[in-house]
Amino acid sequence: SWGGTYSTLKDALISVKVAEEEQNFITKGIAELFVAYNLAILTDMYGDTPWKEACDYTVSMTPAIDKQEEIYKDIMAYVDAAIEDLQKSDLTSLSNQDLIYKGDASAWLKTAYGLKARYTMRLINRSTDKQADLNKVLDYVSKSFTSADDEAAYAVYDANNINPFFGYF
Question: What angle (nearest 5°) sits at the alpha carbon of residue 53, between those of residues 47 and 54?
């Protein structure tokens, strides 16, 4: 899980950079969500973990360990950037490459608000104003999924094409 998550994180960071260069902001927003999500997986599993130097071997083969509190600030910044970018547009269509929502920016925006609610809840015990943050969570949830039909899940698996993790077991 360690290596796979860092590999996905590195790919997502590259995607953010390329999408920005090509002015494909919906694509960039999706990639920013993948950065935030994978970074949250890492820090939730391991606490303090390499981040700032972790995905660029030209910087360090022994990256410094970053504090979880600082990592969560970056996670929230990536989600906020995704929310902003997902309200813009792409110069090229993403529909054929997006296996989850077929390039539907509004669906990804719901995902972004769901993650914003999730990560705000995870930080609630560190909040200086819990009531205000709980109200923010309710606001984020109201902008997120309305049913399980909205969830960010691959719709490519069926009896003939099973999820590879399930197939392994």
Answer: 60
- The predicted model gives 142-160 an average pLDDT of 84
Residue pair 108/144 in contact (Cβ under 8 Å)? The answer is: no
What are the CA-CA distances from residue 145 to residues 14, 72, 112, 122 (Å)?
A: 28, 23, 10, 19
Please, which residues have CB within 8 angstroms of residue 61's CB and are 6 or more apart in sequence?
none
Alpha-carbon distance of 122 to 1, in angstroms, equals 21
Q: What is the pLDDT of residues 80-134, one digit of tens each?
A: 999 999 999 998 888 888 889 998 999 999 999 999 999 999 999 999 999 999 9
DSSP sequence for 32-98: HHHHHHHHHHHHHHHSSEE-TTTT-TTT-SSPPEEPHHHHHHHHHHHHHHHHHHTTS--SS--TTT-
CB-based burial, 57-91: b 16+ in 10 Å, e otherwise? eeeeeebeebebeebbebbbebbebbbebbeeebe
Alpha-carbon torsion (20, 88, 5, 41), positive or negative? positive
Tokens for 59, please give them.
């910087």
Interacting residues of 35 by C-beta distance below 8 A, sequence separation 6+? 9, 12, 13, 16, 78
